[in-house]
Amino acid sequence: MHRYAKIPSLLGASLLALAGGTALAETAPAIVAASITTSDLVIAPQSVPAAPAGKLLTLTVDGVEMPLAPGHYTGNVALTVTDDIPVDYHKVMLHHFRAAAYVENGVLVPAKSVTAALSPQATASDGVLANAAITSHGERFNGIVVAGTGAYRIDHPVIEFTGNGGNDFAGYGAGIVATDNADVTIDRPIIRTTGAIRTAVFVGGNATVHVNDAEIEVRNGTLPPDYKFTVDMGKMMEVPWMLGLSGNVRATNLVGNGTVFYNRSHIRAQGWGGVSTDDSVRVRMYVNDSLIETVDSGYGCYSIGDSIDTFAHSIVRAADVGCIMAAQGSVTFTDGTLVESGRFGVMMHSGEGGGSLRIDKGSHLRARETAIEVKGIGTTVLVDGATVQAGNGVILQSMDNDDPFMKAIMRGEIPAGMAAPPPGVAEADKKGPAPSPDVVATFRNTSLAGNFFNARSRNSAMILHFENARLAGQIATSTTAPALGKEPTAVTYREIGRVTNTAGFVAGSAGVEVFLDATSRWTVTGPSYLRALTLAPGARLESTRGKAVMQIDGKTVPIRPGTYRGAIIVN
């Protein structure tokens, strides 16, 4: 085991001293052929040094990575020349990574590592990097990159970054990156970043990562003055406002075929998102015994494509949305997980759907507004031995997507801020047969107080199964309108998803089907409009007004066990 040494000076003897004992500052050469250190360096205006072709150059002062810019620098100053680390993102844009520590096939590669940015106490041996403290005040600088194959452990890194990242779909500028086929364990990390798309942990390729006992916090940065809003992957530097959110940094990102485990960790984001998946082929995320938070705005988790996010014995506390599911993305909350959201509990959108939401084993979903909102896709929901609460009284809402971008795409338009329809989502939905457009939900071993509305009934049915369940609420087809009476825009983005329902029959509707098993009870709190109703022997159908009344095709019929079809009104 050895300690990292600071890079020795290659300039030779110090410069002549002036009268009075003050040394002349060294002037950075135009081309830095090899790494140099000094105590006094001047980078003249319009004379920013560069590395030789095929190399990269990094400035550090007292071990802190700094922007390579004109100025007078004193202290332990280093200009470090490293080999290029090219990352070709989808063959669309080429990034040149610089990292304090670059690990390949389980071995630290000095030629690709800016060791001057590693703390003196950092040690590396036997597949372990320990006690690395890395501070960056520049942009697009990575802390630790682990690539290639084999197992590697990072023990107690402390990473402090200020400045924007470069591409959070590729991990460009992230605190820790795992890629290729690396198997990485990160123990006791402390990572704090302030900057747009300055991700704390990035997992991509076919990597598998275990993050244990982490303290992670990311804060918004300042967007470049010439930045224009875009949702194009690799160029996007802020959360798409069409999600009803704000912020410009997500704490973590999982892409490609990666797998990540967050154990006993606290992950906190000011805006945008806590734990995210994106640009996925097949990704899996497991969050255990952890706290995930977004403070000013944002979601707790995001699941897109062939993605499954699983939370066990954890807390998700989100300013806006507990979790967002897109395309085939799926989410599970289990083992007493608590989800608390300032607006929507779970929101589903984009693509054709086909994913599933599972809430079970004593978990709790609490939303200040709608608990589960399904926008324009088909899905499957299971609530088993768990509770779901909605502040606005809507447990489950199916509706057309009110995202202005999605509406434009459905019209065959490419909206401003999008160069082309996003890759990945459409392709993911085309794997295998097309998913059902229906919203199928089962509520088992639970008690619920709230309403269920299918406002997308011309395109999909809502099929509800209640098994050993108690429900007090209204179930109906409906039509929706924006809560403020106007379609949401980029200015009123927080109104996206907020609607009012008018219950009633809808012409050409696929409707709502309800199944009550022998141990379930439904207390109707308002006129409920159904296409089908099945009551098992022992099921109870009641009304807050007393005895429930059922009409089918305009005729009152007795409520008995059986299956009924037609234009059903229960009140």
Structural features:
disordered N terminus, 2 domains, mainly beta, 571 residues
Structural overview:
This protein is mainly β and 571 residues long. The protein folds into two domains: 7-85, no CATH class; 228-570. 2% of the residues lie in helices and 50% in strands. It has two helices and 53 strands. The chain has a 21-stranded mixed β-sheet that branches. A hairpin with a 2-residue loop joins strand 9 and strand 10 (107-108). The longest helix is centred in the C-terminal third of the chain and has 7 residues, at 404-410. The chain is elongated and about 100 Å long. The model is unreliable at 1-22 and 423-430 (pLDDT under 50).
Task: Please provide a brief summary of the model.
This protein has 571 residues and is an all-beta fold.
Mean pLDDT: 93
Percent in strands: over 45%
Q: Uncertain runs with pLDDT below 50, 5 residues or more?
A: 1-22, 423-430
Total number of domains:
2
- Total number of helices: 2
Instruction: Give a count of the beta strands, DSSP E runs of length 2 or more.
Output: 53
The description of the largest β-sheet is: 21 strands, mixed
Shape: elongated
Q: Given the helix and strand composition, which structural class is it?
A: mainly beta
Termini, distance in Å?
76 Å
What is the percent of helical residues?
A: under 10%
| Rg over CA atoms | 28 Å
